[in-house]
């Protein structure tokens, strides 16, 4: 692309009132670039002005100095043009203008030094935008050679059937894989399910049979029962799936010779087939199925994981005091099976069970004292099963003892109806013991709502076992990925199938594979059906985006993908190991092998590479490094007391929006900090920090998403990796006689904008106390 540059600066929204526009315009003009100002650049007239220059062939790479790139992104979009948005409004004018500068006296309003610093910030941003245009290129999307829009659904229960129907109704071919011999899953074995319509007081017949009949009417749904997935290889749009019968073992031997592309080294020299094969087997011992080498596999575009849950094992809960080993003490799962066969009878002798106690917690008195994998579903199941008792026996009595009773949404009506049900008794309390008494059971409980201890006689006791996702200790999907056959690298959140995304439900750590139903969290049938629709839409979005070479999420529409300069690759494998999404495999030597449609475009691989050989079309080591070098670092040649200069590398997902909100709320902070948004802090290469300090910047701060159990980085572990890298850079700083405090890492949630000014100012003050960077002026 032969670049033709142009700079456009808006003077509206206070920009022209605060900044010296003549000085600002001089910056591009000194470089021989045309600079145009407009009082309302996002208006029809302003956009038309730019579009005319594009249509006339004058401009195809432009800097637009106006509002944040997070607004008007659709307005300032021009076909086949590189657009660099420079944030003069939220990033410069609004937080630093005379009107918003806090507690200004009349004398301070005349403090031109402060406003000179604001002008310098704006001028730096224009320089940074201009240099970035030189260093990036227009993305050319990756388009798969063989592409499938078929959707694979793993699991033939209610969730899987609902997802398949939703996808099929929109015209997509779907395959349902169910390991048992019939569709329906757990829902087909229920006696009843919770009410789904007003007045939410009457139990409903299970919906499974209706869904099975509906599926039979769709010729584009291929149902395979008695079938499992042996392996999934490839990437979205090109998943190669191998099926097998339950219990069958399919070896995935590496064929001889290896594919032609593996029989050349990085210089193009041909390798001996036997030696290459032997080396591959040696290097890949234990993971020989990593390559997509199954000629009998079927091609799919996306996968919906709806494999469901399994009942919790009471014997592993440490609840001996609840008598789980007694014949008439059962789990809620076992009780449902008994109820589905007819009137409720005791397992021990088959006699009617008219008095049943439902225990919802292990007996502890803490506020979080529920069983593992329990929640609102087990509360609702207890109410439903209590209704069974009163339905089967006019003199039946059901006792529900709980620490928490959760009935979200309209199910609260069912809870209220059960409170009025004759024969149903509910109380908060802690069960201390279940023991045999006579020909029945005795249940004792303390700390009840009544303030009295209870001793209840019972024919049966039902313990609220939770819904354990089948992904716990079982990969289910059997991925042929370098990162392993499952989703997780850890045991957070009980190994549910998703990655605890707050903003991106249904998505897993493996792009193109979407989770729905109880494999994501404990859900009712109604919730699972709704969840299935979301997963189906995500799968459709995935195949359509991948077919256009676009990222699905969270950088939706991004057409870049990682590119490698293999001549300098040392096969260190850091990129393949640190990629949060398994987008990179590697060959026998450890050379990375990209799967572009798996990639989420976070750039973590770019930040990990010590040789800096990984880049994206519009996001490279050089492009960010050049922006850093474009910042003017004041020295004593220009000032008696030169202001300090700081660099902030800021995550575009949480911290950058928070910074915009600081501007929107007109909150001031140090104008000596230059912010560069990055895709993710995981993409930050330490060379940027070293370059900033080497050119005399006084400090560098990385501001990114929170990470941990209760909040998660959009790219799963990018923020965490950045924090580790910052800690390791301390030794390098010491060797340069620089204090470790000059580099900092902080976490900010998107709603914590009010904390950001103090974070910035505190860092500035801490570095100011250290004194100027000794490299300043060199």
From TrEMBL:
Coiled-coil stretches noted in the UniProt entry, renumbered to this chain: none
Cofactors demanded by this protein: FAD
UniProt GO molecular function: iron-sulfur cluster binding; metal ion binding; oxidoreductase activity
Sorted UniProt keywords: FAD, Flavoprotein, Iron, Iron-sulfur, Metal-binding, Oxidoreductase
Iron-sulfur keyword on record: yes
Ranges where the 4Fe-4S ferredoxin-type domain occurs: 560-589, 590-619
Cross-referenced InterPro entries: 4Fe4S_Fe-S-bd, 4Fe4S_Fe_S_CS, HdrA-like, MvhD/FlpD
Keyword Electron transport: no
Family: Belongs to the HdrA family.
Protein known as: Quinone-interacting membrane-bound oxidoreductase complex, subunit QmoA
Lineage, uppermost ranks: Bacteria, Pseudomonadati, Thermodesulfobacteriota, Desulfobacteria, Desulfobacterales
Gene name tied to this protein: qmoB
